[in-house]
């Protein structure tokens, strides 16, 4: 029994000294500058040319963003101006069905029909967190993310690419302000 204590005591003592994971600071800030209406039966809204756009009216060859919240309601909701911390930034490439595709730089040049999907989106996703000031707001919804993209498989686009920060800001217009911290 004494041997058991000699083995377990240091292990228990060591767990007491373990540090919790450090809080990683946000990499940026997204501010909603004006009230935003989330339609009934939806948990997202599309933004293009600085204004909200109906789901089926997005001009997919131009940059657009999808702002997502965590709740669907039977009636429209109006989100008041608020600020969100940008926790992470992820980039991906997918087709219109959301399936990943082979990297564009591994494709062979073909003359004639190809087997590529008709829509290829280079997506930039910002994971969001509401700050303490939003917790005092009367809105129970929580922002989840902002995904910005455009269809890169269009005539005239020789090199497919992710949207630049200027492209994203152009899609958001004055409705949102996006600021990213430059790593040192």
User: What is the helix content?
Assistant: 10-25%
- Inertia-based shape: globular
How many H/I helices?
3
Average pLDDT over all residues: 78
Main sheet record: 8 strands, antiparallel
Structural class: alpha+beta
Order of helices and strands, N to C? HEEEEEEEEHEHE
Q: What is the total tally of β strands?
A: 10
Query: Strand order of the main beta sheet, please?
Result: 4-3-5-9-8-7-1-10
Unreliable spans: none
Strand content: 25-35%
Terminal CA distance: 54 Å
Rg for CA atoms: 22 Å
Explain the overall architecture.
The protein is globular, with a radius of gyration of 22 Å. The strands form two sheets. It has an eight-stranded antiparallel beta sheet with strand order 4-3-5-9-8-7-1-10. The chain has a two-stranded antiparallel sheet with strand order 2-6. The protein has three helices and ten strands; from the N terminus they run H-E-E-E-E-E-E-E-E-H-E-H-E. By secondary structure, the protein is of the alpha+beta class. The longest helix is centred in the first third of the chain and has 15 residues, at 2-16. It starts with a helix and ends with a strand. Strand 3 (44-48) and strand 4 form a beta hairpin. The mean pLDDT is 78.
Structural topology:
Elements: H1 2-16, E1 28-32, E2 36-38, E3 44-48, E4 51-53, E5 64-69, E6 77-79, E7 82-95, E8 120-130, H2 132-135, E9 143-149, H3 165-172, E10 176-180
Give me some keywords for this one:
two-stranded antiparallel ribbon, alpha+beta, globular, 184 residues, 3 helices, 8-stranded antiparallel β-sheet
